[in-house]
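> Could you send the ABC transporter permease prediction when you get a chance?

Sure thing. Input:
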Amino acid sequence: MVRFILRRLLQAIPVFLGTTLLVYYMVFALPGDPIAALFGDRQPPQAVIDTLRTQYHLDEPFWVQYGLFLQNIFTFNLGNDFTGQPIAASLARVFPVTAMLAVEALIIQTVFGVGFGVFAGLRRGGWFDSTVLVASLVVIAVPTFVLGFVFQLVFGVQLGWAKPTVGANADWGSLLLPATVLGLVSFAYVLRLTRASVSESMNADYVRTATAKGLSRPRVVIAHILRNSLIPVVTFLGADLGGLMGGAIVTEAIFNVPGVGNKLYQATLRTEGPTIVSIVSVLVLVFVVANLLVDLLYAWLDPRIRYDQ
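Output:
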């Protein structure tokens, strides 16, 4: 098990370097001067621009800038953004908010997606199965920003069941509405994936054998059908956790959530390469940890899988 974890961590090193290199290069290749953009329509003296460009190493070649970024990453000193604020402090403020939002969305889509998917798979072809299939297609077809505005208007403004906007003081309760919107699209995929997997497992030989042995229906469903059907679902959920954190830009903008999405959007407008790549670096680490946990869950879901070899 220890060797497996170390091997996975070593495999993550080229992924981390390749991802950060690609993102940093794309930011470096963007047109425009980020220092001039800080002053808007006002034109500062050229000496001020030159001083700031030297301070943030923008006058250096690409490889020098990227090397300095890696040095900061490995020394846990991310430096300052173009407004003079420490990047590490800014990320420490926004990442917990987006982490709460992503975890809440993950819980919603897991509980309801797996629950509805199992129920639909066990009764394939029935009215419930047909209903959830049509509903999931509608959710997938409607863009996230449309769902966000509809939920904000109906549940936040008209019914008053939740706060229409989050604001600076974000907590689990205030994030419930944006988390529901964020998790709806993935909920539809989890539902359909669970349904298909459960339907396929119902015709497997081990299910027929367990039924022939006289096992009760709930035990067959939980111990045999559900446990084996969750392997592709767990794979999707593990990859989706990082996607939820990185893809929350639209949702955070609609509900005014002070999280990673807003920070990433503002950094993109200012072409702040170090801030953008710092956010991407943390997201890469989230992906690595989530996929490592998924690999470990495989051994619990399927006893035939062993990592001690």
